[in-house]
Design goal:
The protein is an alpha/beta fold. 37% of the residues lie in helices and 12% in strands. The chain has a single domain, classed as Rossmann fold, CATH 3.40.50.
Length: 232
């Protein structure tokens, strides 16, 4: 397959971003993976991102440091307790949860836009979806469309006509089981991923936070055993 197209892929280390990377790779893009150490309590996800990037032999894996703990406002960046044992997915989606990190995708996409301009890429991939998600406003199609419109007004390359940026959201209408099945079809090793918001010191998933519950349900509905370790 011809490999002359570059794509910036936002890679957290979770199921969605890993599957998105595999899709971009399957489409023939050279992958420039972008991860963030933003003060998240589950920074172990960056180890997963590194494993995934290495497994897929990406062109480059860049980890950017941003201390969002200074801003706070989220259970992922402060000492606020992570919600546990909310088994009803509809309950999760009724309100924006405390695990929402204010403007996180806007911040991440801005870095992706900057890197895409530098490396001469027209393509950014992000693993957002509106099915099986926990009420995050920056995962919606209208948000992505608005950001893409803004992005094409925001760069020197865009103004000069050298760049027509496309933000790809290949998972946006897929549920977790469909995402997992897609990854399996592409040969993705989900044992490399990490999803838990509140892992143990040794990196074991809690099995009780929203992210774990959605992950476990996805594997169950896909008829596949989740390969990661959970607290006993």
């Amino acid at each position: 397959m011809k490999k002359d197209l570059k794509a910036v892929v936002l890679l957290s280390g979770g199921i969605d971003s890993a599957t998105t990377l595999a899709i971009a790779e399957d489409m023939g893009f050279d992958i420039y993976a972008l991860s963030f150490h933003y003060g998240q309590r589950h920074a172990v996800e960056l180890e997963a991102a590194g494993r995934i990037a290495q497994s897929h032999n990406v062109a480059r894996h860049l980890i950017v440091d941003i201390d969002l703990r200074k801003i706070g406002g989220s259970a992922l960046t402060t000492d606020i307790d992570v919600p546990k044992n909310r088994r009803n997915v509809e309950e999760m989606a009724n309100e924006i949860p405390i695990t929402y990190v204010p403007a996180r995708n806007t911040i991440f996409l801005s870095y992706a836009l900057s890197w895409a301009e530098v490396i001469g890429s027209n393509d950014i991939f992000i693993g957002v979806n509106v099915l099986d998600y926990s009420g995050y406003p920056d995962c919606r199609p209208e948000y992505i469309a608005a950001y893409e419109q803004m992005a094409n007004l925001a760069t020197k390359a865009g103004v000069e006509g050298k760049q027509k940026l496309k933000i790809h959201t290949p998972l946006i209408q897929m549920n977790k089981a469909q995402i997992i099945q897609k990854g399996i079809d592409l040969g993705l090793d989900y044992s490399l991923t990490h999803s838990c918001y509140d892992p143990s010191i040794s990196g074991e998933a809690c099995g009780e936070c929203d992210s774990c519950i959605l992950r476990l349900r996805g594997f169950r509905e896909a008829g596949v055993k989740d390969p990661v370790r959970y607290k006993s």
